[in-house]
Design goal:
Length: 471
């Protein structure tokens, strides 16, 4: 049973999807005005891992993560760089995707962009105005927060505390609002800014409305999981809930997951403190797999401190897994040629491996505890290093090898080099083909031969058995 800590209720709850076997998940993505920093990488890595785990558990996951491509910071950047806001966004989306690939973060099912969803935003804002949840003041549209009774339910804030907190936050135009708590849905353009026509003014949407609209369009009115960094709880997610539930008349998201922040040298990471690290700064010194390991070695709801020492420790730990996997691969090839009858305690060793798989799953079931899940993989590595030898059966070696590779893959960690993956995959396929021929299932044998040919592998059947070469 998968449990998720739900920010909405402040409790760990059993995960029950709206539709059996399917998960609708939305993760707030970055504002694309710069290369992504390692703080932005944290939600990408942890929620990608949770997605992989849900898939491993048999769920079909529709995973949507947006790019915010219209925003003050992008406009500022476009003025600095002398290119259009759209060009700034395009450039950093391409760069962000490169960083994601480096971290082995799988692309979302859909990566919508705010500027391509303006029509949906105008529709939702119109609905909110019709329902009296929003009002137009000289071309700016505000959401009437107090009218949405549960406002504050996610951040567990009471409206009067919020009200007093807001007093210091008065910004230009805020005096136009009926109430300090109201927030912007649409704002008129300023000179030189990108804009779209709307019934209220030529202008652009507020930030919060984009996520409500993209979640609705790609996932539906009610979704299972909504995730992001904890800084988004208030006001961003609180406002998303207000807009979506007021407009759609149903619960917006059942589970809200928030990752804690990444700090550097125990201080908040910020540009002004000069302790700001981009993902690509890390890539100059480390394989980004190390960054991924480092992130997953902590629970996603615990603050995490970035330091050189922890990165070195992550690098060493990852190397240990890779070394063990390489040894198991070599051993598997060796044992194919030199079969052994198995060590005395082999059944017991395999049973221990089985309990470690259970430990891995229990940890992931428990609110995505990747730190404990990685610890289980480590125990498998230790066990393999001691108990799996040239005397082991091929079955035992391969079970360890495949289990460690598969569970690492759920964490998005690639612990097997490409060549090894190919060689052992080819050998597995050849073994299946040999078996098929023995079973006189020639159609299957031919299909496997064709599959291998597609992979650029040619087989030759000799008296001694089947050999293969790459073409
Ligand atoms: P932004 O581009 O600022 O909207 O951030 C994109 C995502 O990164 C959001 O989910 C943020 O909560 C998250 N995020 C930003 N900074 C950090 C940080 N230092 N640690 C963890 N998550 C962060
Ligand atoms: Zn969002």
């Amino acid at each position: 049973m998968i449990k998720i800590y739900n920010t909405l209720t402040g409790r760990k709850e059993e995960f029950k999807p709206i539709e059996p076997g399917k998960v609708k998940m939305y993760v707030c993505g970055p504002t694309v005005y710069n290369f992504i920093h390692i703080g932005n990488a944290r939600p990408m890595i942890v929620f990608d891992t949770f997605r992989r785990y849900l898939e491993y558990k048999g769920y079909e996951v529709n995973y949507v993560s947006n790019f915010t491509d219209v925003d003050d910071k992008i406009i500022k950047r476009s003025l600095e760089e002398g290119i259009s806001a759209q060009e700034v966004a395009e450039k950093y989306i391409v760069e962000c995707k490169k960083d994601m690939e480096g971290m082995n973060v799988r692309p979302a099912s859909t990566h919508p962009r705010a500027t391509q969803e303006i029509g949906g935003m105008i529709d939702m804002i119109s609905t909110l105005i019709e329902k009296d949840y929003a009002y137009d003041k000289d071309g700016t549209v505000y959401f009437r927060s107090r009218k949405f009774k549960p406002y504050g339910k996610l951040s567990h804030k009471n409206l009067d505390d919020l009200q007093s907190g807001m007093r210091d936050l008065l910004v230009t135009g805020a005096e136009e609002k009926e109430d300090n708590l109201d927030f912007v849905l649409w704002k008129p353009k300023k000179e030189g800014e990108p804009s779209w026509p709307s019934p209220w003014s030529d202008g652009r949407p507020g930030w919060h409305i984009e996520c409500s609209v993209m979640a609705k369009r790609y996932l539906g009115d009610s979704i299972d999981i909504h995730a992001g960094g904890e800084d988004l709880i208030f006001p961003h997610h609180e406002n998303e809930i207000a807009q979506s539930e007021a407009a759609n008349g149903c619960v917006f998201a059942n589970y809200w997951m928030h990752n804690a922040f990444l700090n550097i040298d125990n201080r908040k990471m910020s540009k002004s403190l000069g302790n700001f690290l981009l993902v690509r700064d890390i890539a100059k010194h480390y394989d980004l797999q190390v960054l991924r390991f480092f992130m997953l070695n902590a629970h996603y709801r615990s603050p995490l401190n970035f330091s050189q020492e922890l990165m070195e420790a992550a690098k060493n730990a990852l190397t240990r897994i890779i070394t063990a996997v390489t040894r198991l691969s070599d051993l598997s090839a060796y044992i194919s040629e030199h079969p052994a009858k198995g060590r005395e305690n082999e059944a017991e060793t395999l049973a221990q491996l089985g309990s470690l798989v259970t430990k891995f799953e229990d940890s992931m079931d428990d609110d995505c505890n990747t730190a404990d899940a990685l610890a289980a993989i480590f125990e498998m590595v230790k066990l393999a290093n001691v108990e799996i030898t040239e005397e082991s059966t091929k079955e035992a070696v391969d079970t360890f090898l495949n289990t460690i590779v598969k569970l690492s893959d759920i964490c998005g960690l690639i612990v097997k080099t490409q060549k090894e993956t190919l060689d052992s995959d080819i050998e597995d396929l050849i073994a299946q083909r040999t078996q098929a021929k023995k079973d006189r299932d020639f159609a299957k044998a031919d299909a496997i031969r064709a599959q291998l040919l597609d992979m650029g592998i040619v087989l030759e059947d000799t008296r001694q058995g089947t050999t293969w070469k790459r073409v």
